[in-house]
Design a protein that fits this description.
- It is a single chain.
- The chain has 14 helices and 14 strands.
- By secondary structure, it is α/β, with parallel strands linked by helices.
- The protein folds into 2 domains: about 200 residues, 3-Layer(aba) Sandwich (Rossmann fold); about 110 residues, 3-Layer(aba) Sandwich (Rossmann fold).
- A 7-stranded mixed sheet has the order 3-2-4-5-7-6-12. Strands 9-11-10-13-14 form a 5-stranded mixed sheet, sandwiched between helices. It has a two-stranded antiparallel sheet with strand order 1-8.
- Helix 12 links the parallel strand 13 and strand 14.
- Helix 3 packs across helix 4.
- The longest helix has 20 residues.
- It is globular, with a radius of gyration of 22 Å.
- It starts with 9 loop residues before the first strand and ends in a 15-residue tail after the last helix.
């Protein structure tokens, strides 16, 4: 962590994970909880390092569900709070998080999680957690750079407080571990003590009241969607709006799109979506209106592609919406992949060269130094070497 992390102003180099913490600090966070899981581990590590000096209460909980419930409790007691973990941690905590849209927090509540396209540190499965936003009726923001990691975290808190709803902040491995310059803003260190106010009417969610609350949440999401239409989270960038090709992109893939267009020395209008739920339907409708081709770039599932295609049918029936027909549904994207996909749509001659094979020493995965599970497994294997053992966290798959 940069030793100037707690400065009130200036510009420093931060990882995306560190920038999330800085954004939370500038937003006035008072409570942070975490369960470590790469690629989101450094969010908790950074909170641990700055908690005493900044006055932010931080706890590394025994699991993700406990971490989520602690942060929910803090937000219901009037303290701005954040919980963080990786995507499998979101699965563990989902039972507690999904109902939170039905109970308005008393202070901003942000859920930061990291997906891991290409499974760099995730051995169980490759997962696109954006579906959780739609299941839980919780808004979701997706930054693409360290600066946006900081700014979007602040905006997530603002959105949460304005509409009294939790907000997801979706990161990916490359967003978490990209380093870049981040502009610092002033923040206040204020002592705060949470207080939970009993409100039987608010917390009564038995049927038929729960159905009424569901309708209220859906109405709230419509208002959020209208609000996001003109938000700085979503921008049309570069190129002429009348260009035949338009690109809709979210997250870190925006950087790969810029690289690919630069290679062809061309410009195309880009709709960069920072809010991927609810999506700004009017903005998308306006963007696709005069295009012949739209390329939707997203990791991993064709979620925005499907929604953009539905919108396009209403305004431009001749429009071709491309996505997973020319981009993979698995693995992490990169500049080479986008060069090939965009080149095809621009009618350029594209050579799909195979990556070079580098002769480098193999690095086998191993347990972290000092991990108590190593001694446990050594003992049980000695006791019963032929038995089959089922594990819990991903590390056990080693």
């Amino acid at each position: 962590m940069n030793n100037k992390f707690l400065d009130q102003k200036g510009k420093i180099i931060l990882l995306g994970n560190e920038a999330v913490v800085r954004g939370a600090l500038e937003a006035g966070i008072r409570f942070a909880s975490n369960y470590p899981g790469t690629p989101a581990s450094e969010i908790g590590d950074t909170f641990a390092k700055i908690s005493k000096q900044s006055g932010v209460y931080f706890e590394q909980s025994v699991n993700e569900k406990v971490a989520a419930e602690a942060a929910i409790g803090a937000s219901l007691s009037g303290l701005k709070s954040m919980v963080s973990f990786k995507h499998f941690g979101l699965n563990v905590a989902s039972d507690s998080l999904i109902p939170t849209a039905y109970i308005e927090p008393e202070a901003g509540f942000v859920i930061a999680f990291a997906d891991d396209p290409n499974c760099w540190s995730s051995l169980q499965s490759e997962q696109d957690s954006r579906y959780y936003a739609r299941i839980a009726n919780i808004p979701m923001l997706e930054p693409s750079t360290p600066q946006e990691c900081k700014d979007f975290t602040k905006l997530a808190f603002e959105l949460s407080e304005k509409f009294k709803i939790p907000v997801f902040l979706r990161l990916t491995t490359r967003t978490c571990y990209t380093g870049g310059p981040v502009e610092l803003k002033n923040y206040k260190i204020e002592k705060a003590k949470g207080k939970f106010n009993k409100n039987p009417e608010k917390f009564f969610t038995l049927a038929p009241r729960i159905i009424e609350i569901h309708k209220e949440v859906l109405s709230k999401l419509e208002k959020i969607s209208d609000y996001l239409e003109s938000s700085e989270l979503n921008q049309v960038i570069d190129g002429k709006v009348s260009s035949d090709l338009g690109i809709i992109v979210s997250g870190v893939s925006y950087n790969y799109v810029l690289d690919a267009l630069a290679k062809y020395n061309t410009k195309a209008p880009i709709l960069k979506l920072g809010s991927t739920y609810p999506i700004p339907r009017k903005l998308i409708s306006s963007f696709v209106k005069n295009k012949k081709n739209i390329l939707v770039v997203e990791e991993l599932e064709p979620i925005l592609e499907t929604e953009a295609r539905q919108i396009a049918k209403d305004v431009n029936c001749d429009l071709m919406v491309h996505g997973k027909n020319i981009l993979p549904r698995t693995g992490e994207y990169n500049s080479d992949l986008l060069e090939i996909a965009i080149g095809k749509l621009l009618g350029k001659k594209v050579s799909e060269s195979k990556p070079r094979e580098l002769k480098i020493p193999k690095r086998h995965p191993f347990f972290c130094p000092g991990c108590p599970h190593m001694a446990t497994y050594t003992a049980v294997k000695q006791a019963a070497p032929d038995a089959i053992y089922g594990g819990d966290i991903g590390c056990y798959l080693m």
